[in-house]
């Protein structure tokens, strides 16, 4: 029960706290600077240099934006522009991106340095850039109309502030975001710590940004109005097999920084063969006691996570979104369910009216081995096994695997770990030690283990 004396005492404490806050003091020991964006008066430090102050990240199929130092400030130039982008061989679209890449231009900087980022708008529409997760003066936050005027087509704006944090962040358009993010205006913003703890230093430091697009067959642009049925699911703007593999040497300490700026979907990213530790959120790095083990990390839209592991198991390990529709390329999701159905010549009949029609396979989609272009086929018809596809379509294109065609696409890549590497270039498919690959069981083995496979 609260006595009047206690009530007055707590009121007095609140008043004291409010006075302290008003005077710029701290309200309590728990509510410290780490929750408030850090002290605004933290001094600017000299620019950090790769090799001396940090080890650069690797953005598979992408790269870090160039910079120069002018009077102690790290100067970047980001260009928003239309790009004829290849999601994977066979699927191109006119997207919007930054400085020559769609999703794959990473900004890399160091805690404490001052950055000046010029943004040139070469789009046909106004734009802005929001620095997602960063502590900065409000007027640098990039929200069109709220904190700045939009950048008109053809003009260049300047953003400048001092980086007062480190970690994995993102940047994206904040003008007509549905359209502009849906066209590809997103990227990762990595800030290295000024004085990393030994446990923060890794051998391989990968960056992946997740996104989703709607590209209809025989069209040349993503449709940003789509709100649920995405058919091109990407990491760094690429869908499998278009994305470079993540390559590590056995024993390497590996960090994978993942961000999600998809339009609508969260993505549970699963790595085969390993467990990893979630070591940082977009808020801050977690102390060792607060890091947690996982095999799948969920990336909500707008979130980043860092995961770390020791690459102690050689092989080709799949790493992918675990939503099964997100590991297919350019699927149509309104097909009739034909699993278990004998379609006969249904395709031929329907194609008289709908030339691009294709029935879902009767055992699923995995066994369909088709490629080609509808224009190559002419009047020859479209038998199963020789199915033609509309232009700019990759749904069923064969992806060669080490053993057989791979029935995977979309938000999927391969973590390749090798005992010996002369470089971190793609080493090709893994060569498994003899006797370590699943294969047809012999009759002798079945007899030995009394496995009865006779039909009843
Ligand atoms: Cu997904």
Q: What are the low-pLDDT stretches, counting only 5+ consecutive residues below 50?
A: 1-23, 26-36, 367-386
Strand content: 25-35%
**Mind summarizing the main beta sheet?**
6 strands, mixed
Distance between the termini: 74 Å
Number of strand segments = 21
| Strand line-up across the major sheet | 12-11-14-19-16-17
Kindly state the percentage of residues in helix: under 10%
What's the pLDDT, averaged over the residues? 84
Note the quaternary state here.
single chain
Annotated CATH topology of the largest domain? Immunoglobulin-like
**In one word, what is the shape?**
globular
User: How many domains, as an integer?
Assistant: 2
Q: Give the SSE order as H and E letters.
A: HEEEEEEEEEHEEEEEEEEEEEHHEH
Q: Radius of gyration from the CA trace?
A: 26 Å
- Count of DSSP helices? 5
What's the CATH first level of the largest domain?
Mainly Beta
Structural class: mainly beta
Distinct small molecules bound, one entry per kind: copper (II) ion
What distinguishing features does this structure have?
single chain; 456 residues; Immunoglobulin-like; 2 domains; six-stranded mixed sheet; five-stranded mixed sheet; disordered N terminus; binds copper (II) ion
């Amino acid at each position: 029960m609260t006595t009047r004396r206690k009530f007055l005492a707590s009121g007095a404490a609140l008043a004291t706290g409010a006075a302290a806050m008003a005077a710029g003091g701290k309200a309590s020991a728990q509510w410290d600077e780490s929750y408030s964006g850090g002290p605004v008066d933290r001094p600017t430090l000299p620019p950090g240099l790769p090799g001396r102050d940090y080890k650069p990240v690797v953005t598979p199929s992408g790269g870090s934006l160039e910079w120069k130092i002018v009077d102690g400030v790290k100067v970047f130039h980001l260009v928003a522009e239309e790009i004829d982008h290849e999601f994977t061989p066979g699927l191109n679209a006119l997207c919007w991106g930054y400085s020559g890449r769609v999703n794959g231009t990473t900004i890399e900087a160091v805690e404490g340095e001052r950055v000046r980022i010029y943004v040139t708008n070469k789009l046909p529409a106004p734009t802005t850039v929001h620095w997602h997760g960063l502590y900065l003066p409000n007027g640098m936050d990039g929200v069109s109309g709220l904190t700045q005027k939009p950048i008109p087509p053809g003009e260049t704006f300047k953003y400048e502030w001092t980086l007062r944090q480190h970690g994995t962040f993102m940047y994206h358009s904040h003008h007509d975001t549905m359209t502009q993010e849906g066209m590809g205006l997103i990227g990762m913003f990595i800030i290295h710590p000024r004085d990393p703890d030994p446990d923060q230093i890794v051998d391989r430091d990968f960056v992946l940004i997740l996104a989703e697009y709607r590209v209809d067959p025989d069209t040349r642009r993503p449709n940003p109005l789509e709100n649920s049925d995405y058919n091109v699911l990407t990491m760094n703007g690429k869908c499998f097999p278009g994305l470079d593999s993540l390559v590590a040497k056995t024993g390497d300490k590996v960090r994978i920084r993942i961000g999600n700026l998809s339009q609508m979907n969260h993505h549970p990213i699963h790595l085969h063969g390993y467990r990893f530790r979630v070591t940082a959120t977009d808020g801050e790095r977690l102390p060792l006691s607060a890091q947690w083990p996982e095999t799948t990390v969920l990336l909500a839209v707008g979130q980043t996570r860092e995961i770390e592991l020791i690459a102690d198991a050689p092989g080709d390990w799949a790493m992918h979104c675990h939503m099964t529709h997100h590991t297919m390329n350019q699927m149509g999701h309104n097909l009739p369910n034909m699993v278990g159905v004998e379609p006969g010549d249904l395709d031929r009949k329907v194609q008289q009216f709908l030339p691009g029609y294709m029935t879902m396979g009767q055992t699923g989609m995995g066994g369909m081995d088709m490629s080609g272009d509808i224009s190559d086929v002419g009047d020859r018809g479209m038998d199963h096994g020789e199915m033609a596809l509309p232009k700019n379509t990759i749904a069923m294109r064969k992806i060669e695997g080490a053993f057989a065609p791979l029935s995977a696409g979309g938000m999927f890549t391969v973590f390749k770990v090798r005992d010996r590497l002369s470089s971190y270039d793609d080493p090709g498919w893994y060569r498994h030690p003899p006797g370590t690959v699943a294969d047809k069981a012999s009759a002798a083995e079945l007899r030995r283990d009394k496995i009865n496979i006779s039909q009843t």
